[in-house]
Every structure is written in C-alpha cells, then in structure tokens.
Predict the structure.
Amino acid sequence: MTKPSPTARERIVAGAADMISRRGLNATSIRETAKHSRAPLGSTYHYFPEGKQQLVTEAVRFTGEWTARSLRKELAAGPVAGLRAFLALWRKIVVDSDFRAGCPVLAVSIEEPATGETPTALAAAADVFTTWEGLLAGSLREHGTEPGQAAQLATLIVAAVEGTVAMCRAKRSTEPLDHTAEQLQALILATIKD
C-alpha cells in the first residue's frame, strides 16, 4: 500500500517548518514559504486566513507531532532506545542539511514575536516541549525511575538535545551530539531499575 501524497496544505506546513528550522521565525515569510512549498501564494492565504502566525503555529505542531510519533514508537523499547531515536532524528536533520537546519520549535521559542502579535506559536512550542518531556518521563517511570526524578531528567534530555542541535549547527560538527548522547544515556541507566 502506498502512502498518499501530502495535500497542498500539508506541503505548506512542512515547508514552513523547514524554512523556520533554517532561517528562524522572523526571516520566514508567507510568500517565501509558498515558493519553497511549490504552492500558489493564494492557496497559502486560503489555508491560513489568519496569516503567518497561524501557519507558524501549525508548523510547530507538525514538528512536535512528527517527533512525538518517533518517540512513542522507540520508547516502547525503553528510555535508552527513545533517547537514541531522539538524538538520531536530530542528527539526521543537521547532517542532511549540511548543518543549516535545526529545530523549528526552538527557533520559534527564542525569537521575539512581532509587536501586537498574539504568540500562539509560542504557546504551541511550549505544548510541544511539554509533550516530549511527558513521553520521556512516562517511559522513565515505567522503567523504575522515581516520578520526580523522571520529570526532571526528561526536561534535561529535551533541553540538552535542543541546545546540542544549536551547537552542532554553530560548530558544523556532530561531536556535541556524541558527547550529549553518552552523558544522557549514562544518566538514564543510573536511574532505571531494569
């Protein structure tokens, strides 16, 4: 069975996520996103009548769910497998983009919203981080980590990986990912009971 082709709307959302991951929030425009997604500009405004903020919010949610799907699948084998998959996902993004792309969720989180804009994308980014933390913490708890420690370690994992992706881009190297992977795995192994 073949996977259906993405709709024009899905292509625009994925294109926005890709552009934000490379250029940041403020340097990503609706016009450039339409061009990047090979979609007519008019259809972009049709699908996103509230403009850029709506499109960016959906791009953040898209990235969040795409990453969460991978985490859910890999965490079934335990928190170490989930960590490895989380790191492998971001490694692939930075390497495949020749260190030009990072995480659009982080990009949206660190840029100041335009004056007068309602930061719905920022709220979406907070929700994404909370979801990723919750998935990791849940797996840690299932494998014997005390609940409070599981929550803190999950926050550390998400924060470390997000920061590491930014370091990889700056250094144009995956070495920060390697160092982070080793230390986070050691922390997980020290807290799980199986």
In short: The chain has a mean pLDDT of 92. The CA atoms of residues 133 and 158 lie 7 Å apart. The chain is about 75% helix and 0% strand. The radius of gyration is 18 Å.
